[in-house]
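Need residues for this backbone.
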């Protein structure tokens, strides 16, 4: 993982982003201490499990296609609010 001083990373942000995409995570340091890591969007999605769309996620639910689910709307009146 390549390390970038914060000042250099700010000045060369486009290059840091391209390196993250090509080479993997890029370490950002401040006063010699690691303070952040820049990763590509693809890696972020893999790490957070965001690779599937909302539709795909819902279709994978064990409740998908269940006929016995009853959704009821709250019919209570709306309360008055003074502004």
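Answer:
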């Amino acid at each position: 993982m390549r390390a970038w001083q914060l000042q250099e990373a700010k000045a060369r942000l486009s290059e840091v982003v391209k390196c993250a995409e090509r080479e993997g995570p890029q370490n950002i340091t401040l006063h010699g201490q690691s303070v952040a890591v820049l990763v590509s969007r693809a890696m972020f999605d893999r790490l957070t499990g965001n690779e599937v769309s909302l539709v795909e996620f819902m279709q994978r639910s064990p409740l998908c296609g269940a006929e016995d689910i009853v959704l009821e709307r709250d019919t209570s009146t709306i309360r008055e609010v003074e502004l």
